[in-house]
Sequence to fold (231 residues):
Amino acid sequence: EPEVTQTPSHQVTQMGQEVILRCVPISNHLYFYWYRQILGQKVEFLVSFYNNEISEKSEIFDDQFSVERPDGSNFTLKIRSTKLEDSAMYFCASSLGGGNNSPLHFGNGTRLTVT
Amino acid sequence: AQTVTQSQPEMSVQEAETVTLSCTYDTSESDYYLFWYKQPPSRQMILVIRQEAYKQQNATENRFSVNFQKAAKSFSLKISDSQLGDAAMYFCAYGYNAGNNRKLIWGLGTSLAVNP
Fold:
């Protein structure tokens, strides 16, 4: 069964550095998402992406964050200048359709540690 | 604002027994979906079961079923004949229908242990 893949599984970076988290969604999916989960807290929506543009973003997704689909397969999340509070598990997801009747398929996540 | 509450941080069940995980939510919307996701140690979020709010019939998927009480805003997950592979973190999530909005609201999760 096709899967969403995320790399790396664990990223350690120093505060102030830029990081890029990578995701390869399922190949025929059209909608892409990033969620994050800070340890001990709820999973939070960050951004949704469709037709090469952001369709919705949360308050968390400020100017330090950006997403890109640089080619036909990758979907990346960039954090320009990481802060300690960006330490979290970041999940990428994709879906074929945009409504809730089209299930989200999640990757295994990237654990980001900012020191 | 929509919220999802899972009041049981941890649960345990004996293998082959039945366990029910609780979830309540708050919303003023009438058209929405509710989900249960499973997160095993591999970390991947796996969709277990989904319920459309407009359907009165409770969703079932093999050993997994829900008790959806719309008026009470309750959405519990029942796992029958529990297996060792059911041990995982279980998340309840809410998604409302607004065009292409896929902003799921999540509970804190319930960690389920299955004892042999």
Remarks:
- The radius of gyration of chain A is 13 Å.
- The CA atoms of residues 38 and 60 of chain A lie 12 Å apart.
- Chain A has a mean pLDDT of 93.
- The interface with chain B takes residues 31, 33, 35, 41-45, 48, 50, 55-56, 58, 89, 91, 93, 95, 98-101, 103-104, 106-109 of chain A (CB under 8 Å).
